[in-house]
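(Protein data)
===
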Amino acid sequence: MSAFHHRRRRGLAIVGAFAAATLVLGACGNSSDGDSNSNVSKSNTDNDKPGKKVVIGFSAPAADHGWMGAITKNAVAQAKEYKDISLKVAEGTNDVNLQISQVETFINDKVDAIVLLPFDGAAMTSVARKAMDAGIVVINVDREFDSPFAARSTVLGDNYGMGVSAGTYVCDDAKGDKNKIVAEIAGIDSLPLTQDRSRGFADALKKCGLKVNNRVAAEFTVESGEKAASNLLQAAPKIDYLWNHDDDQGVGVLAAIKNANRDEFTMIGGAGSADVMEAIKAGNSVLKATVVYPSTQAADGIKLARLLVQGKSMSDLSEIEVPRQLKLAAPVVTKDNVDTYLPSAFRS
C-alpha cells in the first residue's frame, strides 16, 4: 500500500528502538589526535566493493497500485547494482497463506536473507521467526511484525509522521483561523499504518485548534478513492482542507472532485506520486501539496540484507552494527520544493 507508500536516502531518521549501542550520526569518528579512549569506530568505506555472494529472497504484496509496484521495481533495480547479490523474487500476492508459503520456500532453499514486505505483519510474524531461527537474516519492510525476534532489522516509513506533516501544513496555511473545515480520506482503516496516519493528523491539528470534521476511508485503490470521495463530498457541502492518505487512491478522489465540480478547498496528498507532484508544479488544481512515503523501503532492505550477511556496517555511522530499525522521513512537497522530489517519484 502506499499506503503503504519514496526515495529517500536523504535523511534517514535512525530509530534505535532495539539498538545495542548509541548511534553517532555524521562524521566518522576516530579523532585526529589518536585518542585511545575513544570507542568511536572507523567508518567502513568499502561497502560497495564486491564481497561474499548473497542470496536474497524477496516477497511483497501484489502490485495493485503504483506505490506497491514501485516497491518491487526499486528492490529489483537495487539488487542489480551489486554483482554479489542473487535475488529470488516471489510473485506479489495479497493472499497471506500464499505469502507464508513463499517464505517457507525461501527457508527450504536456504537463502542467506529474506526481505519481506508483509501483506499483514501480524500474520507473517510466525514464519518470519521461523526464518530467523533457521539462521536467515530477515529484513521487515513497511508493515511491522508483532515480535522483535522476527526480524534482524526493520525499515519503516513514518506513518504517524505523515499525519503530523499533513496536519502541520494545514495549520500553517490556516494562519490561526480555527473555523476552517478539515476533511480526511483515509486508507484501509483496519491497518495500523492508517490508524497511525490519522492519529498524527489529528494530533497536529489540535495544536492550532482545528479538528477533522469529515472523514471517510478507502482502500488505496482508484475505485475506492472515487467512491469514498463521492460520499464525503455529498456529506460535506463546505470544505477548506482535504487530506487524502494515498496518491494512488487520489486518482479516484480527483475524479470525484471533478464530477462534483468542487474547487473551494486545498487538497494534500500522501505518498508522493509523480502525477501528484506534476499537478502541484502546474498549480492548476486543488492539489497543493503531498506528503512523501518512500517507495524505496524495500531497496533499502536489499542493501541492509547484503551488509548484514557480509558482516559489514553502515559506512556513514560510527556504530559497528547495522541498526535494528530505520524510520524514514515524511517531508511535505509543495510547489517550492517539488523539483527536488519529482525525479525519484513513482507513477500512480
The two ends are 12 Å apart (CA to CA). The chain has ten helices and 13 strands. Residues 1-44 have pLDDT under 50 and may be disordered.
